[in-house]
UniProtKB/TrEMBL annotation:
Annotated keywords: DNA-binding, Transcription, Transcription regulation
Domain HTH lysR-type: 1-59
PROSITE patterns reported for this sequence: HTH_LYSR
Protein name: LysR family transcriptional regulator
Pfam family, one: HTH_1
Gene3D superfamilies per record: 3.40.190.290, Winged helix-like DNA-binding domain superfamily/Winged helix DNA-binding domain
Phylogenetic classification of the source organism: Bacteria, Pseudomonadati, Pseudomonadota, Alphaproteobacteria, Hyphomicrobiales
Species of provenance: Ollibium composti
InterPro entries linked to this entry: LysR-type_TF_proteobact-type, LysR_HTH_N, LysR_subst-bd, WH-like_DNA-bd_sf, WH_DNA-bd_sf
Family membership: Belongs to the LysR transcriptional regulatory family.
Length: 306
């Protein structure tokens, strides 16, 4: 097993680019990760990485070895999944990611319940509003809101979610409530955007009688955390575009108000995405089934004010 452990560390170092990140991912110290790489290099008789101050880059030998090593680990994972399916006792670790707000509200609170039901399955949850590279970072399941563009991934739709444009009464009193989409631009309303490195959405897609309309809006500041945008909106600092279930409590207590109801944002798909082979893994299927039912129920409760 020690040799396989060394291979597993090597693969994660290649995928994450440094020892510290790989160590955190595998719950070992950077020193232990470094020693396992050294053992592997000694066994193979070649150098696997070129070391720089910030990143480890695989050598030619390392690149060749990575391809075969990844196939070996994938084959072992598939074999273990087949045995688990046959025995009816799924076990192992699932790496899960979700956006910050959605993850906090819907996913994180369900992880302990899932573990209570399936105690042999460990879950490692990573919350980020950034676009996580599922394949590169070894993610098993990613919960997402929005269009899924990567054709190398499978998708399981969970729910189509209504979006709304909302602002605080304080903001609308100070700036005036827009009566049509054109006023968002002509009156230079503060439209607060979710942006991060690699983000592609610098616009709002809105529903009009003529069909979907792409509106390039602007604001004085943006954030890579959706909950920060909500906080700014609550403070009267601008207009945000949000799934209704995320802001429903504030709509009910009057702290936010829906605007431009005749031309709302297009709905957003809430879905789980995963690499093609992962659905063969029974523990992944169990998590998808558990979270899909739970999230649908929680969203319905939020919208109903329960």
């Amino acid at each position: 097993m020690a040799y396989l452990d060394n291979i597993a560390v090597f693969v994660r170092v290649v995928e994450l680019g440094n020892l510290s990140a790989a160590g955190r991912d595998m719950r070992i110290s950077p020193a232990v990760a470094s020693n396992r790489i050294k053992e592997l290099e000694k066994h193979l008789g070649v150098r696997l990485f070129n070391r720089t101050t910030r990143q480890l880059m695989p050598t030619e030998h390392g690149t060749v070895f990575y391809t075969g090593a990844k196939q070996v680990l994938d084959s072992i994972t598939e074999a273990e999944a087949a045995v688990a399916a046959l025995s009816g006792q799924p076990r192992g670790t699932i790496r899960v990611t979700a956006p910050l707000g959605l993850g906090r509200r819907l996913i994180a609170s369900g992880i302990p319940d899932f573990h209570d039901k399936y105690p042999d399955i460990e879950v490692r949850l990573r919350l980020s509003d950034h676009n996580v590279d599922i394949l590169k970072e070894g993610i098993d399941v990613a919960f997402r809101l929005g269009v899924i563009e990567d054709s190398s991934l499978r998708m399981r739709g969970i729910m189509e979610c209504e979006r709304v444009l909302v602002a605080a009464p304080k903001y609308l009193e100070a700036r005036g409530e827009p009566t049509d989409l054109g006023e968002l631009i002509s009156k230079k309303h503060d439209c607060l955007m979710l942006r991060y490195p690699g983000s592609k959405e610098f616009f709002w897609m809105l529903q009009t009688p003529q069909g979907p309309h792409k509106l390039e809006v602007h604001g004085p500041f943006d954030s890579d955390d959706g909950d920060v945008l909500t906080g700014w909106a609550l403070a009267g600092r601008g207009i945000i575009n949000k799934p209704r279930f995320e802001v429903e409590p504030y709509l009910r207590d009057g702290r936010l108000k829906v605007i431009l109801t005749g031309t709302p944002p297009t709905p957003v798909q809430f879905a789980a995405v995963y690499p093609h082979k992962k659905l063969q893994d029974p523990k992944v299927r169990l998590l998808l089934d558990f979270m899909a039912e739970r999230c649908q129920r929680l969203i319905r409760d939020l919208l109903a004010g329960r």
